[in-house]
Structures are given as structure tokens and as C-alpha cells.
Specification:
With 121 residues, the chain is mainly β. The chain has strands spanning 2-7, 10-12, 18-26, 34-39, 46-51, 57-59, 67-72, 77-82, 91-100, 107-111, 115-119. The mean pLDDT is 95.
């Protein structure tokens, strides 16, 4: 019942920066962990960063020190600040959230449709 919409992707040169946003909408009761994944051409989707409802963050080794995930619960939005971008960061970036399944004690993942980030000179 919750939808995720990403924005902020684009074309940047190596060393540049971008800030991605993901806004949740719909019937929102609660959201646990939110995060970002990416999929480069010809490769599997991989974890980039996560942010739990308890404010715990986790980053892939390849982006530590360069990317920062943040969350604004009042706006139901998660952000990804990307600095010192490299050509290897080129991918479609997807937002993900864990939401409760109605009338159960379980959670499920929902996904946005992705935003393209291209790093090239």
C-alpha cells in the first residue's frame, strides 16, 4: 500500500556530487528500515546503504567515506548524498523500504522504480 518515488539522478563528471531523494506515499502506518540499492549494466543489484528506524546506518565498503544516507521521518523521505563520484558508481539506483504486512507480525520490502546516475567525463 506504500509507494516509493526516487529523484535526483543525472549525469556528472568524476569527482562530482549528487543527492538522491526517495519519498514514500500512500497508506503509511510505519516504516522500519529504508535503504538504497544499485544495479550497474550487466551486473546484479547490490546494497549501497541502509538506515533503520533506530537510526543505525550501514554502507557497502565501496562507498564508505563518500556516500551518506539520511532520513527525514516527518517527510517520509530518505536521502543519499553522493560525493567523489567515480565511473564505477554508474548505475540505476533503487529505493527500498521495509513495511509491516497487515494483520501479521511480519514485514515486506517495497521498491521504487529507480533513478539513473551516470558518472562520465
Amino acid at each position: 500500500q506504500v509507494q516509493l518515488v526516487e529523484s535526483g539522478g543525472g549525469l556528472v563528471q568524476p569527482g562530482g556530487s549528487l543527492r538522491l531523494s526517495c519519498a514514500a506515499s500512500g497508506t503509511i502506518v510505519s516504516i522500519n528500515t529504508m535503504g538504497w540499492y544499485r544495479q550497474a549494466p550487466g551486473k546484479q543489484r547490490e546494497l549501497v546503504a541502509t538506515f533503520t528506524s533506530a537510526s543505525t546506518t550501514n554502507y557497502a565498503d565501496s562507498v564508505k567515506g563518500r556516500f551518506t544516507i539520511s532520513r527525514d521521518n516527518a517527510k517520509n523521505t530518505v536521502y543519499l548524498q553522493m560525493n567523489s563520484l567515480q565511473p564505477e558508481d554508474t548505475a540505476v539506483y533503487y529505493c527500498n523500504a521495509a513495511v509491516p504486512v497487515p494483520f501479521t507480525s511480519t514485514w515486506r520490502s517495497i521498491w521504487g522504480h529507480g533513478t539513473l546516475v551516470t558518472v562520465s567525463s
